[in-house]
From TrEMBL, chains A, B:
Protein name per its UniProtKB record: Recombination protein RecR
Annotated Toprim domain residues: 80-174
Tree of life domain: Bacteria
Function of the protein: May play a role in DNA repair. It seems to be involved in an RecBC-independent recombinational process of DNA repair. It may act with RecF and RecO.
Any GO BP annotation: DNA recombination
Start-end of C4-type zinc fingers: 57-72
Alphabetical UniProt keywords: DNA damage, DNA recombination, DNA repair, Metal-binding, Zinc, Zinc-finger
KW Transferase (keyword) present: no
Native species: Sagittula salina
Length: 197, 197
């Protein structure tokens, strides 16, 4: 069999992105080749830079280009409030709403008996360590309003009971809804009306 | 304003791909960061390579990593039949069908009075040059069944009249197609071109 040329290799790799199938990958690659100066070359450069520098923040689990992410490095955000989210997409959704000024803790998923994911597979031990280290007074459980999300929220609430104030996002997050799908206004309203867990 | 970090830059560039909006770009970038060894680094490398090498085949307009594409370079495909298509995506679609063994000529669009696209904006002069140079005996006009595609096919047919045999793809019901989903024009064409059972 003949060797694949670089264009075919690029199409195959692009087709592995979420939301792109083979057909949209081909369209995207043709678009990139047409705009190879304005888009393809900068994209190659940005990808190489992210590949070389991206890692998980050692403190909170956010993606970062340094050992500690900009939010954890920002002393102005050490206000004693931690917002616990399932994944980085949720953190980004909270940040876009521009209403929360504390820090985050990214679990990296939810507890799931079915998938064999227990507390140690998530970033739960690290969450406990942070309570003292960062003088945390309130933990906001901003998990998705799904069964797994709420199970995880209850588990964490049990673990932290009596050590900090616990709250969760207000009703207003639709049943079965995921933070990353919500508009900024809904997130703002839910955060402002958060209630004690 | 603070400078954008490489991850934000990557999201912005990804959001400019056809079929990806800001949200799917964010999802794609998180996926890439999670798979930075298996997917992000190879993708960066493939993009850099395509950015450095991709160009238009000087002969047919196909995308290529050399001055002449593999199809034009393949002497076995010099069978005197040229298939004229609108763009490279159409050429790829024909190649996937693995049924055409001649060469292609990619116009780079269709004639459009509205958009000010005349014959010289397309690869039509070059098509005429190829007829003699490659001893072409048949030109298949494989343009899209749109008004602009068919206008362009008629224009080229007028230009080449008497110099080569001209043909176009048959119109009819697609394989697996249901009549109820087809537009009236397709049904009319299929009925007019009906053949004995
Ligand atoms: Zn962090
Ligand atoms: Zn060619």
């Amino acid at each position: 069999m003949r060797e694949k040329n670089p264009i075919e290799t690029l199409i195959d790799l692009m087709a592995r992105l979420p939301g792109l199938g083979p057909r949209s990958a081909r369209r995207a690659v043709l678009h990139l080749i047409r705009k190879r100066g304005a888009l393809l070359a900068p994209l190659a450069e940005a990808m190489a830079q992210v590949a070389a520098t991206a890692r998980e923040c050692l403190n909170c689990g956010n993606v970062s280009t340094g050992d500690v992410c900009p939010i954890c490095a920002d002393e102005a955000r050490a206000n004693g409030i931690l917002c616990v989210v399932e994944d980085v997409a949720d953190l980004w959704a909270m940040e876009r709403a521009q209403v929360f000024r504390g820090r985050y803790h990214v679990l990296g998923g939810t507890l799931s008996a079915l998938d064999g994911i227990g507390p140690d597979e998530l970033r739960i031990p690290r969450l406990k360590d942070r309570l003292a280290a960062e003088r945390v007074t309130e933990v906001i459980l901003a998990l998705n309003a799904t069964i797994d999300g709420q199970t995880t929220a209850h588990y964490i609430a049990d673990q932290l009971e009596g050590r900090v104030a616990l709250s969760s996002l207000a009703q207003g997050v639709p049943i079965g809804g995921e933070l990353d799908y919500l508009d900024d206004g809904t997130i703002t309203a839910a955060l402002n009306a958060r209630k004690r867990f």
